[in-house]
Amino acid sequence: MDRPVLVSCGDPSGIGPEIAAKAWESLGSALPFVWIGDPAHLPRGTKIHEIESPEEAMTIAGSGLPVLPHPFPAAAVPGQPDPANAKAVIDVIARGVDLVMRGEGLALTTAPIHKKALHDGAGFAFPGHTEFLAHLAGGVQVVMMLAAEAAHPPLRVVPATIHIALADVPKAFSPQVLRDTVRITAEGLRRDFGLAAPRLAVAGLNPHAGEGGAMGHEELDWINDTLDGLRAEGFVVAGPLPADTMFHAGARAKYDAAICAYHDQALIPIKTLDFDGGVNVTLGLPFVRTSPDHGTAYDIAGQGRANPASLISALKMAAQMGAARRG
Fold first, then answer.
1. Could you read off the pLDDT of 100-137 as tens digits, one per residue?
2. Domain boundaries in the chain?
3. Which residues contact 13 (CB under 8 A, 6 or more apart)?
4. CATH class of 1-142+285-327
5. Would the pTM of this model clear 0.70, i.e. be above it?
């Protein structure tokens, strides 16, 4: 590594500051990262170095957590998000994106936010990090991938539709959405994971992938034809497959990523396999972005109980992806 990974603080009333401090204790100089946020929000007793530029982290990470200070207007009360801090949370994300796009960081790892708290406090108009990051990058098309590299075999899943009601999925999951998702996923696996010919498996929308029309017609009406077209373009794509038989170990060994029709179809298996270590990755951005695959956990914030495993995995994946992207 010649540059550190940048970490946005997330909601300071959640577990973000605590897991950042624990991640530094675990990684130290082995994986230098810079925490962007208000130093007063970190757990008491955390060894820190306030810095002026990310590059300083490369030489001091072994003796303290490098912190790029970003003052917040209010104190952080564990478990109680303050609307006064909402804009600063958003500004830290934007600052991290600006820095990494200017080449001052190898990648960006984002700590958890609470969308309702940001909406209530600052009018945050995006369903989540993924959509906001795509906006900051100029409105590029992206997909959300969740990865459990510690599972055997590993599992990577991509929901083609994300933060929408289940009732809206059949209309939102369209031939163009499926084509875009496959293309962005395949390119991301080539560019950021070093897979020359990614193998993708696509889940059907309906139980048993429709079972020949007995349980739904989308597979017959357009999913089969769409996948045939993608295969004709050279993509290695299996499916549509019954989602209930795609995620056992033998099935996972046959593909590099699974494309799912909707949020829970993708996230239930990955959180079952590796609840503590899963990583959220945004593919399609002009920079590398990862995140722990959990929320703010207000119920345990400030109690010293938060598990940093997912953040540590996210940092390690960010470093590996950044190195792969640089070639």
1. 999 999 999 999 999 999 999 999 999 889 899 999 99
2. 1-142+285-327, 151-273
3. 76, 77, 78, 79, 80, 81, 82, 85, 117, 296, 298, 301
4. alpha beta
5. yes
